[in-house]
Amino acid sequence: MNIYVCAKQVPDTETKIELADGKTVDESAVKKWIVNPYDEYAVEEAVQLKEKLGDDAQVIVVCLGPEKAAEAIRTTLAMGADRALHIVCDEYLDHHLIATALAGAIKNDGEYSVIFMGKQAIDDDSYQVHLRLAHLLGASGVTSVIDFEYGPEAVQVAREIDEGAQEKIELRLPVVLAVTRGINTPRYPPLPSIMKAKKKEIKKLTPADVGISEITNNEEIVGLALPTEKAAGKVVEGEAAETVPELVNFLSNEAKVL
Amino acid sequence: MSSLGVYIELKEGKVKKTNLELLTLVHQNGQSATAIMFADDAGGYVEELGAYGVEQIIQITGLEGPNSYPEVRSGQLAEIIKEQGLSDFIGTHSAHGKDLLPRVAARLGAPLATDCIGVDFEQGVATKPMYAGKVIAQVKLTGRHRLYTMRPNTITPEKAAAGTTPKIKTVAATAGTPLSQIKEIVKGVAGRIDLTEAQIIVSGGRGMKDKENFKLLEEMADCLGAAVGASRAVGQTGKTVNPVLYIACGISGAIQHFAGMKTSKVIVAINKDPEAPIFKKADFGIVGDLFKVLPVLTEELKKVMKGD
Questions:
Q1: Quick check: A10 and A18 in contact, CB under 8 A?
Q2: Cα dist from B125 to A192, A250, B103, B120, B138, whole Å
Q3: Which residue of chain A has the CA closest to B177?
Q4: Of B33, B284, B217, nearest in space to A230 by CA
Q5: In chain B, where does the domain assigned CATH 3.40.50.1220 lie?
Q6: Does the structure's ipTM exceed the value 0.90?
Q7: Are the C-beta atoms of A175 and A140 separated by less than 8 Å?
Q8: Selected residue of B284, B299, B302 to mutate for chain A interface (largest A Cβ count, 10 A)
Q9: Cβ atoms of residues B232 and B256 within 8 Å
């Protein structure tokens, strides 16, 4: 059985983002690139499923991104994925095209039943490729998955919804599962796994290989700006009997938020 | 006829406040909306939606209730968007909206901008945070249909200058093929307000020390009608909140936490460490012992909220 995981390379969470111009992030200023944290949960969940199902199962990572994304792919292979498909693309693709590329790569590769990915990438925070992918693959789809149980025809999941509530859902295979924090604790690969990962296959693909002959984006970033910092506020110190009325006065008369 | 559709999300039979925010955005853009909802009898909503300038209500019957069969629902919405020739379609970036609109966009092959904090419908340009709010992007959408989800609490609901009496059009849901089945909905803590859509959030961090001490926050939250959060729940899980007032208690202000709450209109920090980074971001800070400040604050707030 093929278990697919879609993973993206993103700037580390602690990165201070700088702009190259009014439309693009200065990638040369990014010191550290990582596997999107939500995708790491996806890789872990896929590897755990493989471990449960035994040797017939293999985990295949699908990654869309420039050449340097290969580093992130190696990390996922060290975590226990068996091989990877790397759609090498430097150009901006909108979410419809990203999903189209991922779907094309998976369809060309083989039979698919379970596809994991993160609920969002922490760079563009878009929350949508998973459900687009599900549609393009004719699969069921679910987001914010925090619990997963495999079955040969259907899977059982718990997904987070508003107000701390959860939905327990049964979904038919094939299924795209967008996972969130809390589903597992991703492993740190030991050195032998890292060494072994270097020998695993990364198959490079072009956009044309996965069905994108022409790039026509319907979403385009036309401006980027860093948010303006707020002016420093007031800080008071002293006995609660003095500071609290000052705060309440601020809230009701100055900020007018009560 | 308007070519702008607004997805109305009902909660326990009521129009959610976040939907009024969407309708406000539409009339502030000088446009009028077609409100689309899953309801068997939308008659009761005519007055409220009309006050916000809605021109037409499309009720999709036969699928009222929790978000079961999102594959079927998204198909219905995509059909209506096509058939009505809606150029723009907007919903809330709630758990439900996040689940539904990408599916609709996929069916239409249409662009979607999520978690927007502003939309210019004429230009098709959405403003949205990226990199956990470290960057604000302008995204231009093109094509026959353009979709958006809007971050809750971004806009203050305001009625339209001229009210309307929208006509109701009924579309009976046609059977699709459900791929999923909700087996159970497990509720969170009863009676608590959801963080994502809360107007006021009282949030506790490490300085609260013990879970037991969250009772102090709950008491204050109850008198303010606020939601209670934990610093762990904001930012680190990718959860962003956007309240009018955010009261951070015993939170030092880690970068991820700040990313999750920075768009709060007013930030109040209470922390005993004067060097805590949160004070740099706060509109008002009290350096002091939480366990002394909180009870006094709750008492004072009770007086104000009662109108004394």
A1: no
A2: 49, 36, 21, 5, 6
A3: A140
A4: B284
A5: 200-306
A6: yes
A7: yes
A8: B284
A9: no
A165 and B274 in contact by Cβ < 8 A?
no
Smallest Cα distance from A201 to chain B, Å: 31
Q: Which of residues 153-192 of A touch B (CB under 8 A)?
A: 156, 158, 160-172, 180-182
Q: Tell the CATH topology of B4-172.
A: Rossmann fold (3.40.50)
Is the CATH number 3.40.50.1220 carried by domain B200-306? yes
Contact A247 B109 (CB under 8 A): no
Q: H helices within chain A, ranges in order?
A: 37-53, 70-78, 95-109, 129-136, 191-197, 240-249
Q: Which domains does chain A have, with CATH numbers?
A: 2-210 (3.40.50.620)
Q: Is B137 helix (H, G, I), strand (E, B) or coil?
A: strand
In order along its 308 residues, chain B shows pLDDT tens digits of: 348 999 999 888 899 999 999 999 999 999 989 999 999 999 999 999 999 999 999 999 988 766 678 999 999 999 999 999 999 999 999 999 999 999 999 999 999 999 999 999 999 999 999 998 889 999 999 999 999 999 998 999 999 998 999 999 999 998 778 889 899 988 876 556 778 878 899 999 988 888 888 899 999 998 888 888 877 767 666 678 888 899 999 999 887 788 888 888 899 999 999 999 999 889 999 999 999 999 999 999 998 887 65
Q: How far apart are CA B105 and CA B100, in angstroms?
A: 9
Alpha carbon of A224 to those of A28, A93, A220: distances in Å?
17, 17, 11
Where do you find CATH 3.40.50.620 in chain B? Answer: 4-172
- Tokens 């208690």 map to which residue? B249
Beta bridge partners of A62: A6, A85
Strands B135-141, A175-179: pairing kind: unpaired
Locate A229 and state its tokens: 């910092």
Give A-chain residues touching B183 at CB under 8 angstroms: 156, 168-170
In this complex, do A171 and B136 lie within 8 Å of one another by their Cβ atoms? Answer: no
Residue B35 has phi, psi (to 5 degrees) of -90, 130
Per-residue tokens: B134: 């470290």
Contact of A215 with chain B, judged by CB distance below 8 Å, is answered with no
